[in-house]
């Protein structure tokens, strides 16, 4: 079933949810300035493990953080990591995929073999190994995620380049003597690039889950920074400790956050 204009309802819902998260991330600093939500990084300024109230709608956690502020603030952190990882991966993977697919030969085979080796490794395990090497932090988490997505972008761009480079208009450009870089930028890249945002949309959702996995293991951003994986770990610990159920209900372990 498609709506008017050829868009399916699922596509519209997907864009609406994405836009909602983007608006929430952009609105959080403004809400902080207005005093409508607490500082998610402040320790011990509020009653520890306080129940929900008018002052703290979702209550507070073991460190005295406002849980609503942590849930809301983590949206912006996730966006930062996803955008940073994309900014690192795309400038590396797209030119390499274009160059390898157009050139062919031994360099193409060597790059493809290296990227296939990276792609064969489980993404979360690879990001954990990289996080151990580079440490915690927003940019370090982005680096860990970008290494996962570089081979994916490379494979998509290279495969599309292989199918485009033999088209008639590309052969005509070679016949008139255009240099390889001009053929890549004028004729091949514009026909390859539309496939990249599709993969980017899939990777963005996967990046949020991988970031949460790193945070759950203590390898993502520092604990003081609001992040769903780290807070989820704390929420699950409360279950084993017999803490009040409202703490877990309003934590990132729940569907409300």
Feature tags:
mainly alpha; disordered C terminus; single chain; MetI-like fold
Overview of this structure, please?
This protein has 257 residues and is an all-alpha fold. The protein has a domain of 153 residues: MetI-like (MetI-like fold, Orthogonal Bundle). The chain is built from 10 helices and no strands. Helix 2 runs parallel beside helix 5 and helix 3 crosses helix 5. The longest helix is centred in the N-terminal third of the chain and has 37 residues.
Quick recap:
This protein has 257 residues and is an all-alpha fold.
Q: How many helices in DSSP terms?
A: 10
CA gyration radius, whole angstroms: 23 Å
Name the structural class: mainly alpha
Per the CATH scheme, the topology name of the domain at 77-229 is MetI-like fold
Note poorly predicted spans. Answer: 253-257
Q: For the record, what is the CATH homologous superfamily label of the domain at 77-229?
A: MetI-like
Q: Tell me the quaternary state.
A: single chain
SSE ordering: HHHHHHHHHH
Give the distance, in angstroms, between the N- and C-terminal Cα atoms.
31 Å
Total strand segments: 0
Largest sheet: none
Mean pLDDT: 80
Amount of helix: 55-70%
CATH second-level architecture of the domain at 77-229: Orthogonal Bundle
Question: Strand percentage, roughly?
Answer: under 5%
> What overall form do the CA principal axes indicate?
elongated
Q: At the first level of CATH, what is the class of the domain at 77-229?
A: Mainly Alpha
């Amino acid at each position: 079933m498609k709506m008017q204009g050829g868009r399916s309802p699922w596509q519209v819902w997907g864009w609406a949810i994405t836009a909602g998260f983007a608006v929430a991330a952009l609105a959080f600093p403004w809400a902080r300035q207005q005093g409508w939500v607490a500082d998610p990084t402040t320790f011990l300024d509020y009653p520890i493990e306080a129940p929900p109230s008018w002052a703290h709608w979702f209550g507070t956690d073991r460190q005295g953080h406002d849980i609503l502020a942590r849930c809301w603030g983590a949206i912006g952190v996730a966006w930062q990591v996803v955008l940073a990882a994309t900014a690192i991966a795309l400038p590396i993977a797209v030119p390499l995929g274009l160059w390898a697919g157009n050139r062919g030969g031994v360099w193409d085979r060597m790059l493809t073999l290296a990227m296939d080796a990276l792609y064969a490794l489980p993404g979360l395990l690879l990001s954990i190994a990289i996080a151990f090497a580079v440490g915690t932090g927003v940019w370090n988490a982005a680096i860990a995620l970008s290494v996962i997505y570089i081979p994916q972008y490379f494979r998509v761009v290279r495969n599309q380049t292989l199918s485009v480079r033999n088209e008639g208009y590309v052969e005509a450009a070679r016949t008139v003597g255009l240099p390889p870089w001009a053929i890549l930028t004028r004729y091949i890249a514009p026909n390859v690039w539309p496939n990249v945002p599709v993969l980017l949309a899939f990777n963005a959702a996967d990046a949020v889950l991988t970031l949460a996995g790193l945070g759950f293991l203590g390898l993502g951003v520092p604990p003081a920074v609001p992040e769903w994986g780290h807070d989820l770990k704390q929420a699950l610990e409360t279950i084993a400790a017999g803490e009040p159920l409202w703490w877990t209900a309003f934590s990132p372990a729940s569907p409300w956050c």
